Amino acid sequence: PLSSVKTLSTFTVNGSAVTAGDRVVLAKLTGSVVVAAVASDANAAVSISGRTGLVAGNNTLTVTVTAEDGSQASYSVTLFVTPLSADNSLASLTVNGSSVAAGSTFTVAPRTSSVVVAAVASDAFASVSVAGVSGLREGSNTVTVSVTAENGSVATYAFTVYVTPLSSVKTLSS
């Protein structure tokens, strides 16, 4: 009679042994894995699906063993690709060394033409850009801080730098 053995003697993902039902955590942007699947019976056929085209989050990898008699067994594991961070928040925001909050106003002395803004993203993989810190004029000036998360999502934080006008008093006090 034809063999009905449809078990695996070897099942590895990226060199690590796995069993059906396991969850394998993979690095960000992983698009494929190396799978070794060997049937216990040399006359059985093995097919593998789900090892390429991986996306962030859960992906299913399935190994199907077809015994010599045509009967089948499937062995699946979940491949979890770590998603890119969506954190586009600010850990800290300072102007000339003083903490400020988005939406607030920071007042500077007359004739101030620029300020030093230090903006630190909460996530080390996010990038920060700052606009509006130079060429300041008397009155209200908007400074914009953009934080781009690892996944490309952007958050914009703005605050006002108020340059105090020169006094218009032209009389001397006695």
If you had to describe this structure to a student in words, what would you say it looks like?
By secondary structure, the chain is mainly beta. Helices cover 0% and strands 48% of the residues. It has no helices and 14 strands. Strand 12 (127-131) and strand 13 (139-148) form a beta hairpin. It is rod-shaped and about 120 Å long. The termini are far apart.
Tell me the distance between the termini. Answer: 120 Å
Q: What spatial form do the alpha-carbon principal axes imply?
A: rod-shaped
Query: Are there runs of 5+ residues with pLDDT below 50, and where?
Result: none
The helix-and-strand class reads mainly beta
- Tally of extended strands? 14
Radius of gyration: 31 Å
Defining key terms:
48% strand; 174 residues; 4-stranded mixed β-sheet; mainly beta
Secondary structure: elements and pairs:
Blueprint: E1 8-13, E2 16-17, E3 23-26, E4 35-39, E5 45-49, E6 57-66, E7 72-81, E8 90-95, E9 98-99, E10 105-108, E11 117-121, E12 127-131, E13 139-148, E14 154-163
Parallel strand pairs: 3-7, 10-14
Antiparallel strand pairs: 1-2, 1-4, 5-6, 6-7, 8-9, 8-11, 12-13, 13-14
